[in-house]
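Repro:
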Amino acid sequence: MQKRKIFIVDDHPIMRQGLGQLINHEPDLEVVGEAEDAATALSGVMETKPDLVIIDISLPGKNGLELIKDIRAVQRQVALLVHSMHDESLYVERVLRAGAQGYIMKHEGGKKVMDAIRKVLSGDIYVSTAMSAKILEIFSNRRGNATEPVEALSDRQFEIFQMIGQGKATRSIAEELHVSVKTVDAHRANIKEKLGLRTGNELVRYAVRWVEAQNRN
């Protein structure tokens, strides 16, 4: 039996180890490589040519969304599955638009993770049952051309925006994303401009309300 090859991208060694053990326990699957950041991941994927890449959203430097686009540009056939701590309601649409085929949250158990892996490897899309209706809406384009201002944000800006909405301070965001405070401040300024906001307090209020609204949906 020829095993399906899987590459893991996550900046937490324990998470990579746990996923690797889960996958390698399956007789028809094997982990052929791993990386802790986007740059290492892209070169590793090009070298190992896996059937599936499992990607975290939060990575040092480029985030997972940007990595998905980079991988899709050089490996058209590889399956891409996001495995993230972030609530899927915040990211699932961007993930699918970027080129991934599935999204599963890190709190899910091993059986669901394996279900997601196998479904994406078979060519299907995997999301939670709760998100299925939203995915149908996205692909049937029932929204028409209406978009909310947040859609204008880049993937990194959106990541920082939702962290602001969770009440995280600039320094905390910088540490979590492994970037400088100056970089986060620059993103905040661009976010304010795109959303038509004048002050940092307006940005915080807007972001908090937006995240709360998403959590109610």
